[in-house]
Amino acid sequence: MVKTIMVVDDEPGVIYTIKQGLEHEDPDYKVITANSGKRCLELLDSDSRPDLILLDIMMPEMSGWETLKKIKENTSWRSISIVFLTARTDPYAKSAGCFLADDYIEKPFRIPELKQRIDKILEEKKMEQDGV
User: Fold this and answer.
1) What is the mean pLDDT of the chain?
2) pLDDT in tens, 24-71
């Protein structure tokens, strides 16, 4: 079963690393990318509905916090799993991120660990939807 992951980050190197890494680790992964929160919302609005969004916090124009708020305000999008993937390591951001999103992963990260955490979230969501 194909798992669609949207990566939202303003750093092209991070986007490239995640896309190549996840698609190499698992051929069932399809990674779509957005270089800003605004672009993320445009893709969601055009019916690109991922299973999970990897969302950077520190981005110009629209932060990850603001992007998350917009996603959660939309009834069609609010059930999409969100994982903050960020260089912010301060306790406040981590605490808020863990509360607001499905997971909070600090940069730098390793692709196998990232994939494992994504798989766990998607499996839990599937079990929840199946009523298990």
Assistant:
1) 95
2) 999 999 999 999 999 999 999 998 899 999 999 999 999 999 999 999
Q: What are the DSSP E strand ranges found in 9-130?
A: 29-34, 52-55, 81-86, 103-106
- Give the CATH number for residue 109: 3.40.50.2300
Which residues are CB-neighbours of 102 under 8 A, at least 6 positions away?
52, 81, 82, 83, 121
Instruction: Give the closest residue to 98 by CA, choosing from 124, 130, 121.
Output: 121
108: preceding bond cis by omega (within 30 degrees): yes
Total number of domains constituting the chain: 1
Range(s) of the domain holding residue 28: 3-129
